[in-house]
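Appendix B. One record, verbatim.
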Amino acid sequence: MRKLVLLSSALMLFNSFSSVAETIHFPEEFVPLQVGDRLIEQSFFSRIDDVELAPGTYQVKMKYTDLFEQGYDDHQVVESEPFWVEVTVESGKDYDLVFNRASNAVAAEVFAESPQVSLKAKGSELAVPLSIIGYRAASAPVQAVATAPVVASSKPATATPVTLPAKVPGGQAGLKNTPSAAAMLEFWWQQASPEERRAFLQKVSN
């Protein structure tokens, strides 16, 4: 009987935590790096694209990175410098980070100089533009403090084409130059550390 009571209490505690944690989904072209002073660990074998946050206001650090094919077997990687945005999460809402994907590498380089992203609640047609803030602003205390830990959901990295993001009102995501699986694999290989490359080679050779 005591075990049953303890199990029920644990389930209630888990459900209460889940009820206050909302999810922000990041498209493949954006890498979440940090929430406040909490780092988000990315690796060659697992990509984190879902971050759970309690309702509140947060400062989130991320990076834009995109891949464009240049001919038959050549491609170009376009990246931005890491930047911070201020995000407000409301109770009971999950979100998608959305943007207008560039149709070619030239346009992507322009976008990387000044990324523009929005936050769209799932089921909503309205995407709210996010304000980009500087590092000093990101270091300042946040008024709304998280009531639960930040949880980053990861999944194994796969060599798949870039997934186009949702539309942002007033624009359309680019539909051209979707990279091949081989190009994506080479892209992630370049991002991997020497240790991750050795582990990957050992894994595929078994």
